């Protein structure tokens, strides 16, 4: 993970770099630093903790300079402290790095044998030392970077400056994102468009293996063979406002409340009065989908949970077999791929290392084609897929995914409907499902109105250490998502089970200290779920039940806390029931005083394995 910003400009760049880092802090926030070239010297400031800690140190002793690099870190090699914070300096070179160098240990030993003394535990300092060696051997900065990256195994995005070449920053990427911001008389590098949107909306998205050199006057891109390559300048549609927190206390709260709009945007111009519109998955998409005989869905975390919901939908409505797997497992095993299988990658960021690697691996496994469901148009996952469906959630800053999930569900619902229609789903059922999907933004809006009741419920969780989440059918992934939200931002240990599985082991955990959260839509499995809830009651567990308005709940089944929801139909119920679980996790975290938007040990975009 980690975030990178760099600049070559006429003006002093430190304030721009700090502003860029703040926009990138979602990528890592355990230490930060920046280095600026001025008068043949490297001026550097680094601090453990968030960007604001480093900013305070910089403001206490600011330094001018128009060329600089900066970094916010998510620790991989070495604990979070100042010595391990970037930029790392070796002789005349300073570098910031995102990614993991897998052969760093052997490179480090070789460098030590040649007399290098290391001041950090990081893999990054190895790159700095190697570049410094090459420059000492007579190469220019760009040539030195090119020579060194050939010997690196693993993933990197780097930005490097040299005292000997004022006004120049060299960047390179492989397996981690990096883009160029094109300003007027100034150029920038950044891990994503959010870091640069305050200074320019004109971006060059670098390809795998690219090396780039920026100065005030120009940005020039080279391939790994050192030859210049052309990369288009694109206008980013991101607006600076979209990354503001507005009136909300946290980004997560803002993003939860943005869901009706985000879902409506995801459906717009894709779902018409008569159903899914032609080719919403890209040119030739409908023809390809018509040939599909099975689906493999690959993703991580929240995106994986969205894929699990889609399995229920596609199997029920399109009668196609669906396998869903976490990307970190899929990439390292020999999955059997029957003829005609579609590979679907789901990712908010489009840069998740495991998902990207799984997608690349899928290329040699003989799929019919690949479809990316993603929120970032220029991301690697989108660029490498045959078909794409963008989720249009807008920037998601909170580390805990919220609107990304519900918009992924909206996109997967479109896919399910398209596959089902092509396989003969009858008119009446198709029309009903489409109508439910059209009504989803309104149903989410109504679920959001439960917030005051959920704040009261959240009080019960303040002293708890554990919680169980239960769901059946397509609500099981919703229970998984609810438990993931609670654990990642409130640090309460939470697990989710299909409700029928409780009696096969987890029931042993249930006592008066164990809150059990259940999702109860109205449907064929409701009576089964009610029996499972009775099992919890009988053991003294505290039940918190989110039930559909239409779901008959007798007093016994609902004893504990019962919140009624208008789920808007069985098809869209998973998306609707997710909302109160997000709100519950959010308010529990607020009451427990955790860092809601940047929970400990995590980062938003997981670009390392
Ligand atoms: C969940 O709240 C997390 N943010 C995490 O599980 C996330 O969904 C996962 O890392 C996958 O990210 P992606 O969607 O960007 O690929």
UniProtKB/TrEMBL annotation:
In this chain the SIS domain maps to 285-425, 457-599
- Could you tell me what reaction this enzyme catalyses? D-fructose 6-phosphate + L-glutamine = D-glucosamine 6-phosphate + L-glutamate
Write out the entry's keywords from A to Z.
Aminotransferase, Cytoplasm, Glutamine amidotransferase, Repeat, Transferase
Q: Which residues form a coiled coil?
A: none
| NCBIfam families from the UniProt entry | glmS, PRK00331.1
Q: Which residues form the active site?
A: 2 (nucleophile), 604 (for fru-6p isomerization activity)
Q: Which Pfam families match?
A: GATase_6, SIS
Which InterPro entries is this protein grouped with?
GATase_2_dom, GFAT, GFAT_N, GlmS/AgaS_SIS, GlmS/FrlB_SIS, Ntn_hydrolases_N, SIS_dom, SIS_dom_sf
Per UniProt, subcellular location reads as: Cytoplasm
Give the taxonomic lineage as stored in the record. Answer: Bacteria, Pseudomonadati, Pseudomonadota, Gammaproteobacteria, Lysobacterales
Report the superkingdom from the record: Bacteria
A GO MF annotation of the entry reads: glutamine-fructose-6-phosphate transaminase (isomerizing) activity
Instruction: Name the residues that span the membrane.
Output: none
> What SUPFAM superfamilies is this protein classified in?
N-terminal nucleophile aminohydrolases (Ntn hydrolases), SIS domain
Main EC class the enzyme belongs to: transferase
- What's the name of the protein? Glutamine--fructose-6-phosphate aminotransferase [isomerizing]
Q: How does it assemble?
A: Homodimer.
Q: Write down the EC number.
A: 2.6.1.16
